[in-house]
Amino acid sequence: MSTPLGTTATRPASLDAVLRHAWQAREFTASEVMAATGLTRSTAIEAMDTLAEMGLLEELPNARLAGDYRKGRPARRFALRADAAVLLGVDAGHARITATVTDLRSRALASHETAHEIDSEGPDARRGAVLATIDEALARAGRTRGDVLAVAVGVPAPVDAAGRSPRHPHRFWERMNPGLAEALDWAPLVRIDNDASLAAVAEGAVGAATGCTDYITLLAGDRLGAGVVVDGHLLRGSHGGVGEMVAFDHVEGVGSAHGLGAMAATWARAAVDEGRLSPDGALAGLSSDDLDGRRVLEAAAAGDPDAREIAARVGGALARIVSVLGSMFDPQRVVVSGAIAAGIDDVVRAARLALPTDLHLPAPELVVSTLGADVVVTGAVWAAADAARTAALDVWASRRAG
Q: How many alpha carbons fall within 13 Å on the CB side of residue 227?
């Protein structure tokens, strides 16, 4: 007879203990559960059978059938049923939306990406674009909304604990997050978060901050945004504003919250307009309209003197940014992250040289991410997985009750 499933307060703790072990283990026996959880054999077996009956665990072929059996009675083996539901990670950027569907082991099943510029469109268009991207990713994975256990979405806006963004003077934040939590209420577990915060989740899980408990992830493409982790906790703030960079409008040598790529493009265009570029340099043949941060940084990496001078100037600005963040949050490490990271090595080298040596606190280590343009969607998948591990049994309980 199976154990009844209830809320966290009423159901047997053994179910949660065994499921926690299942998330971590590839496969396991009752003896291994006992060693990991301290449960008795009968309690462990009962919990494993209940979770299998619910569809969260699957019983594997015994050791004899698998070819591993030597002698004696083969032990029953179980594993998390990875296809019991799916997870969704979404990077709902300003100009591009990416959705990735994974199984419960966070193994990617399908992705879909759409270009979407929403400056002139209303909230319905933004919500519709996010949902359409999600539905297409689910269709490519052969799944539906009903299969989704948890979804996490990163947006370029501050987000509070309820998934809402505050008013912006030009309504940009509301356009980026036009009630996405409500639009996704068909999913059992929903997390809307700032994109830089989800980038920090990714860097801490599988990126340049793995094993670090005090770090900042700096998304630095078109605009600056920071995900801040202190003592192992991702900081949010009352309105989700921790990591907002508008204060840099007032920092000499930075002057705005524009990202590193935008800085490089702005200074390169000014050099073109003022005729300050070498006539045989890589940038001189380009019009102001054709200059973007990527081209400037690529030219710097190729050794163009004008581009390298601009990269060094951007590096000086980055050093000031890192110094201010270091004095505010005392991180061990600052990770330059996002698509811009692929060409930012010259800028980071210049920033390291420009970091002040007379700060009251030691300057943080400055490193470049290896996760590329997918860092936000990677963090969203990890956030969805964390929500699933925390609340899967509560979801299954509510489904049974319904």
A: 29
